[in-house]
Amino acid sequence: MPEQARYQLWIIAAAGMVFFVHLGGAHLWDMDEALYASCAREMHERGDWVVPMFNGHLFPEKPPLMFWTMMVGFDLFGVNEFAARFFSAVLGVATALLTFHLGRLLFNVRIGFWAGIITASTIIFTVSARAATVDSALTFLTTAAFLLFALAVAKPGTGFGHRPEAGRGRAGHVLGTRLKAEKCACPLGPPDCGKSPWRLMALMYACLGAAVLAKGPVGAILPLGAMALFLLIERGWRNLLRSAWWMRPFTALVVVAAIALPWYVWVGLRTDWQWPRQFFLEFNLRPFRQPIQGHGDVSSYQWLVAALVSLLYRLYHIPGVLVGFFPWAVFLGPTLVDAVQRMRRRDQTRAGVALAVCWFGTWFVFWSICKTKLPHYLLPAYPALALLTGCFVDRWLTEPASLKVWWLRNAWLSMILVGIGMIIALPIVAARYMPGEARLALIGLIPLLGGAWCWRATARNRHQAAAIGFAVTAVVFLTVVFGFAALRVDRHQNAPAVFAAIRADGSEPSTVPLATYCFFRESLVYYAHRTADCPVTVCDDMRQLRQFLDRPGRRYVLTKDESESEIRAAFAGRIRVINRQRRFLGDGDDLVVLATLPDAVAGGRASETGGRRFPNAL
Question: Which range is least confidently modeled, 185-199, 431-445, 498-512, 536-550?
Answer without folding.
Answer: 185-199
